[in-house]
Amino acid sequence: MVVTALELRASAAGHAQQLARQRGVPLEVVQESFYTADLTGPFDLIVYWDGFGIGTDDEQRQLLRRVAGWLAPGGHAVLDVYTPWYWARHAGFTRRTETCTQVYGFDAPGCRMTDTYTGQDGVEHTQSLRCYSPQDLSLLLTGTGLHLAAAEPGGLFDPDTSQWHPQAEWHRCMTFQAVLTHADRG
Fold first, then answer.
1. Residue 27 lies in a domain
2. Rounded CA gap, 103 and 156, in Å?
3. What's the domain count of the chain?
4. Which of 88, 93, 123, 180 falls between 20 and 30 A from 20, CA-CA?
């Protein structure tokens, strides 16, 4: 079995290939955007960690339609989805290290988390992801050819203790894992 990885950044694609070679893992790395990549599916399993929601809802639907096209009959897609309640609760959290300052934020009208890093040089880098509840994701899936088959709460980072907890209750979790199948499978 060969695993196919899709990665936008050349440095990350190269790193993935290097790690796979070192460990003897058969890996095909496609260095391209998931909006334009021509993948040679179908795939029994598609997994997307830590990045769903990077664009607009329309861009997420475009991606989800592509996932539906890549997914084999009977296959599953697993998404790691950020929740709005975690980010709303922890907006303003600030962590200072020797190299940077990190600040969590939450854009409530856009339902987007922000994670801003400011280096010692004063340059800010912010990532922002659209947050969804399972119900929001179900609505987003309309017309994509996919169906939310299951959703499980993920973990949380506790900013007070700086500890990661791999499982959390729904009302506290930072992310949830969504299992998607073809819509006609129900």
1. no
2. 16
3. 1
4. 180
